[in-house]
Design goal:
Keywords: Pathogenesis-related protein, Plant defense. The chain is of the alpha+beta class. It has 3 helices and 7 strands, in the order βααββββββα. It has a 7-stranded antiparallel sheet with strand order 1-7-6-5-4-3-2. A hairpin with a 5-residue loop joins strand 6 (94-105) and strand 7 (111-121). The longest helix is centred in the last third of the chain and has 24 residues, at 129-152.
Length: 153
């Protein structure tokens, strides 16, 4: 098991960014980055804790789909956790990937998006650091695209 943590400073209002990144992500991201995510559909649940969704990646992705489960959402403290439980993104070597997202306000009215990814490997499999780096960079690109969208709208 390995954990990767990274922070991205964003100039958007914290509550607005949380709404975009967490609450509206299923419809917003396919709208602004269709090459990354084609669509998201709920398989079980109402969107809250325990909800299972399938993400269909866009043509610009090397992956087809990923199924994830919402583990926790706290709109007051601007935190969200979810786990990828199935899909080719796990590459046959991971049991799951758990993500923890926290939006923290900065003094200048912007925010920092803190992300922690925990990779649960099958057995003693070593994690490919290049693949993790690629995933981190794509996540950062997505957050920057969301920020640009929020600033323009």
């Amino acid at each position: 098991m390995g954990a990767i943590t990274y922070d991205i400073e964003i100039s958007s209002i914290p509550a607005k960014m949380f709404k975009a990144v967490v609450l509206d992500a299923d419809t917003l991201i396919p709208k602004i980055m269709p090459q990354a995510i084609k669509n998201v559909e709920i398989l079980e649940g109402d969107g809250g804790v325990g909800t299972v969704k399938i993400i269909h990646f866009g043509e610009g992705s090397q992956y087809k789909s990923a199924k994830h489960r919402v583990d926790a959402t706290d709109t007051e403290n601007l935190t969200h956790s979810y786990t990828i439980i199935e899909g080719d993104v796990l590459a046959g070597v991971l049991e799951s990937i758990t993500y923890h997202v926290k939006i923290v306000a900065t003094e200048d009215g912007g925010c920092i998006c803190k992300n922690r990814s925990i990779y649960h490997t099958k057995g003693d499999v070593e994690i490919n650091e290049e693949k993790i780096k690629e995933g981190k960079e794509k996540a950062m690109q997505m957050l920057k695209a969301i920020e640009a969208y929020l600033q323009a709208n």
